[in-house]
Amino acid sequence: MDFDLWAFILDNLEAAGVIGGYVSISIVGFALISLAAKDKTKGKSQIGPKWAQPIIGALFGVIPGCGGTIVVSSMYKNNKISFGGLFAAFITTLGEGSFVLLGASDEADVTANLTAFAIVNAVGFVVGTILGYTVDALGYKANPDKLLKNIIDEHNYQSEKDNAFGQLIVEKYGFYLILAMSAFLLPGSIMALWGGGIESLESISVWVAITLTAGSVLYFLINKFVNKGHSCSPQEGLKTTLIHSVADITMVVSYVFLGLFVCNFIIDVLVGPEKFNQWMTSSTIAVVLIAAAIGATPGCGGMIAVATAFVTISNFPMAALIAAAIATSGDGIFPLLAENKKDGFIVTVSGFAVACIVGLTSLAIGI
Questions:
Q1: Can you tell me the distance from the alpha carbon of 283 to that of 178, in angstroms, rounded to the nearest whole number?
Q2: pLDDT in tens, 138-154
Q3: CA dist 196 to 16, 18, 256, Å?
Q4: What is the mean pLDDT of residues 304-318?
Q5: How many other CB atoms sit within 10 Å of the CB of residue 160?
Q6: CA-to-CA distance for 325 and 46, rounded, in angstroms?
Q7: If we measure between CA atoms, which residue out of 128, 101, 104 comes closest to residue 117?
């Protein structure tokens, strides 16, 4: 068959950009809420009673993105929450993959995404809480001073060490351009929640979405490899909060584009839609196990890829999404592996095992 590579690339750039419009709303909104509430946990010896620590950690874990787990990490470092609470937060979190479920595209239904987001978080909350209580009951303790200091440092935004060109892109030109394109797509994204749209802006919105994706990929690469900035550190001030939000937006959009490109290429070109749908319905157990393995890979990329597959591939099992969500640990696994390989191995392997059990159980009961 004839395959137009350029048209294929543009279609995936547009789809990722449309999702980026919703991602921008979610990330900026939650970042501003976190900024407004940043002082709530200061000056307290411990957050809540000892028996409630896993529940508190799980509640922070369900907050979209990595902000909740960073707050819990800070509390744990200062002995304000137990290790069970910390563990519950990391089991519960979807990381940046949550923003994909809070988004939508022509291929994904907003209501269905929000339903999936609620279901996955509910299952994760229950599993995370139970495991948190189990860990506290067993008396297991990691080294909070060593682990959490590195989590904070690993994500710290070191602007004074940045390359001048990278800093200019991250803090000025690219920063304002990404925000401007996100703001332009905002009205259409909000109206789409109710099935509406702005007909007069449809044609230009397509190109803005395409440009948003292309610009996000460029921004993400410059920020990661030239500027060496990080996007998950809690910082003071509106400007720095928005800089981190833009870094989060570009990272998610970049991974979404990569996930869309790979998934659609496999489905539409290498395999074929009919054969792929047949495989999806006949090998659901394999899909669940593969999703758990992808989710267990360090960082947010694996969870974003699975979430992207869920919102774009028909018949993708909810159980596979749940398995990936349970398995993912987000970026917090990197300092753990660097400083304490044994604990990093235990967390990764046990998380993957629990994810497989929960995913297969969800599949068996029809979730």
A1: 40
A2: 887 655 555 555 555 54
A3: 19, 14, 24
A4: 82
A5: 6
A6: 28
A7: 101
